[in-house]
Amino acid sequence: QHTRHYHKLDEKAASEYMKNVPVLAEKLGGSPDDWEIQEVGDGNMNYVYIVEGPRGSLVLKQALPYVRCVGESWAMTLERAYFEAKALRKEFELAPEYVPEVYYFDHPMAIIAMRYLEPPHIILRKGLIAGTVYPRLAEHISDFMSKTLFHTSLLALDTHRHKEASAQSYANVEMCRLSEQVIFTEPYMEAANNRWTSPQLDPDVRALREDIELKVEVAELKARFCERTQALLHGDLHTGSVMVTETSTKVIDPEFSFYGPMAFDVGAFVANMFLAFFSQDGHAGMQGARDDYKKWILQTVSDVWSLFAAKFKGEWDKSWDSPGDAYLPAVYNTPAARTLSEMRFIEDVFVDMLGFAACKMIRRIVGIAHVEDMDSIADADKRAACERKALTCAKVIMKQRRKFSSITQVIDLVRHQ
Amino acid sequence: QHTRHYHKLDEKAASEYMKNVPVLAEKLGGSPDDWEIQEVGDGNMNYVYIVEGPRGSLVLKQALPYVRCVGESWAMTLERAYFEAKALRKEFELAPEYVPEVYYFDHPMAIIAMRYLEPPHIILRKGLIAGTVYPRLAEHISDFMSKTLFHTSLLALDTHRHKEASAQSYANVEMCRLSEQVIFTEPYMEAANNRWTSPQLDPDVRALREDIELKVEVAELKARFCERTQALLHGDLHTGSVMVTETSTKVIDPEFSFYGPMAFDVGAFVANMFLAFFSQDGHAGMQGARDDYKKWILQTVSDVWSLFAAKFKGEWDKSWDSPGDAYLPAVYNTPAARTLSEMRFIEDVFVDMLGFAACKMIRRIVGIAHVEDMDSIADADKRAACERKALTCAKVIMKQRRKFSSITQVIDLVRHQ
Ligand SMILES: Nc1ncnc2c1ncn2[C@@H]1O[C@H](COP(=O)(O)OP(=O)(O)O)[C@@H](O)[C@H]1O
Ligand SMILES: Nc1ncnc2c1ncn2[C@@H]1O[C@H](COP(=O)(O)OP(=O)(O)O)[C@@H](O)[C@H]1O
Ligand SMILES: [Mg+2]
Ligand SMILES: [Mg+2]
Ligand SMILES: [Mg+2]
Ligand SMILES: [Mg+2]
Ligand SMILES: [Mg+2]
């Protein structure tokens, strides 16, 4: 199957395709006539088919050689499917509870077949907009992040394996470049892609572009993003890349995966939770209706960070005899040295996490890709008010990020914005 | 020529070899009988032949598949010659005044033919031990560093070229691993390779291994060394990798070259100048005889840093329209933003430079490879006194490195140690 040339599938062609891939045909059972196929891709980039057969179901995801929501004018490498499949498999190896299993990958066709995350799984962002509480979310996502980030870093790998893995991930450069552009650059300049709630936020956007202190901080974070090959990142870990039920949490869509700074993944998730928080007033039927929910969101962010830090240290504590080349046991394996090493490491992730979170909040308000949490607030004044709070808060987080001594202080800032 | 298998040359075989490489035979002129060949490799790793013919001269450097000074028991990849040749060529492209031209490279034979740096060129370290002043040194070496580091970074390159170059350099992983081991790890543990002036420094070595604060700082720098693909480094820029005359400065031997943090190269040079400084009292025929020379060394370090900072900014100022993806003009090209960007960037290099310099000083006193500056002090008590000052100073530099506000403060510390 791997010598086929790329062509874009529709429902009918997808059916034909799966008929010829034994592992898929067998999983579905019956014959192509029995298969229900539905395109559900709500993302900006790719086609996603849900396929159900008499015996089983699956999801078929195919990349397009351009950005779906823009059209053929914005070309986009098909290679991202390769990196997505590779990351899904590595994440599944490290944290199987939180990742759909990959059944099949076709490189030239840019097709991934994976487990269908059946209802009631929904995209976390939609659950947050609906005001649904997910009691296991913090525990699960922190578990996913700590395991995938720790075990792909030099804390767990030797130099050979770590350098080789990061050198291989470089080839996802197109996607890295896209992130650089839309996260770290365009929000701070005039760019055709940018949009914002106008005219309400016009002065805010102007102030952002003139905020030199902020822009220089952003440049430092961009350099870390481009240069720090610390661990295998998901690369796009917002609340639209997580599917949830009350008891299950699954991370999908790592097509931006590459070796980068751990804090980028953690910051992406936190940023989108904060955006969800700031959007709640726009969704509350009446004043105060979402107050308990807002508390839950902030508690969840607090838990995500605390649990991430604790679980990451937990992985580390279990790994002092691992081949990880960063902190060799002969030098660091005493109680005091371990404690200080772990504390400093986590503090470093914390500060960068806040910086990346701030970048991610800002770009979702003034850049190309917004979040449904805000966009679904129909009243522009109401929306602008929510967005302004988020933007103001992000700027403070960015500039003060080295001064917070705990996540609680950050949460307090967000709560009282 | 590129299909030959590796075999180690001696003088006679080298002559035969060059006879069969037209570009080399022509450069030398005459016939093999007319060629004078002399092995001069004083390094730990490779064979270096100086070859003089009727028409011209050259240096032939061949790597061995093991560490020369240890023997076949310590295997070492021949691939380092490839990275050395590649780095020499890139450096020659960017800063031709300071790099010997490569005439010829034979990959399977791990042979580099390059310009012979004729007398009175000598290894800088030997000049420093002899107490010779090099009035152009600071200007030259800062020029070399600013040009090579700036133009291989994301300040000058676009993301595609930068990521590709750094991914390719990953394959010099054997040499990176060696640096990790001997610079960042073994000095802080019991290791068969370590040696120091004993018993004089025994308590100092013990204290070093118990200095948790210091070791955790070292771990952070090691992480930067392993993970930060900022620019193409020389990778071994000590005073034994620089050849000088009163008017000329040439950098040789970049076999450790890889994409790493800029500060590592600058720190390597500074560290070795500080070691030269601290060794002077061991070389002074009588008390105070080297006082002027010590002043010159410190002035040179001060100039190296100030000129590096100024020249680096100079390259940057000329490059605001370059394809460098780090600071796009549309975001940063205003006088105030440029000034703040450059200032912050240089401050960041400064702090890491001090950290790497401290690591390099420490490892040369208690690790596997010492410096002739100290080793040539025959009196062990005298030598230990010099080494202790250097070691003590390095520890302070490491721990205080975020607090110095200028190179002058660092120099004052060194002077009054
Ligand atoms: N394994 C899956 N199970 C169920 N639904 C999925 C699965 N993968 C994707 N989807 C649905 O398809 C949508 C788009 O998938 P995603 O991988 O995020 O594509 P894109 O890269 O285009 O954003 C998701 O928001 C989700 O609704
Ligand atoms: N191009 C050159 N011209 C003159 N002498 C050289 C040249 N290259 C090397 N040498 C001499 O050979 C010695 C070892 O060379 P070097 O490249 O440092 O080898 P190694 O990698 O073994 O340290 C140098 O210290 C210097 O004395
Ligand atoms: Mg998606
Ligand atoms: Mg996607
Ligand atoms: Mg370990
Ligand atoms: Mg050498
Ligand atoms: Mg060498």
TrEMBL record, chains A, B:
Residues 36-274 form the Aminoglycoside phosphotransferase domain. GO terms for molecular function: ATP binding; kinase activity; S-methyl-5-thioribose-1-phosphate isomerase activity. Keywords: Amino-acid biosynthesis, ATP-binding, Cytoplasm, Isomerase, Kinase, Methionine biosynthesis, Nucleotide-binding, Nucleus, Transferase. Pathway: Amino-acid biosynthesis; L-methionine biosynthesis via salvage pathway; L-methionine from S-methyl-5-thio-alpha-D-ribose 1-phosphate: step 1/6. One of its GO terms (cellular component) is cytoplasm. Its main location: cytoplasm. Its EC number is 5.3.1.23. GO terms for biological process: L-methionine salvage from methylthioadenosine. It is an enzyme of class 5 (isomerase). It catalyses: 5-(methylsulfanyl)-alpha-D-ribose 1-phosphate = 5-(methylsulfanyl)-D-ribulose 1-phosphate. Homodimer. This is Methylthioribose-1-phosphate isomerase. It comes from Riccia fluitans.
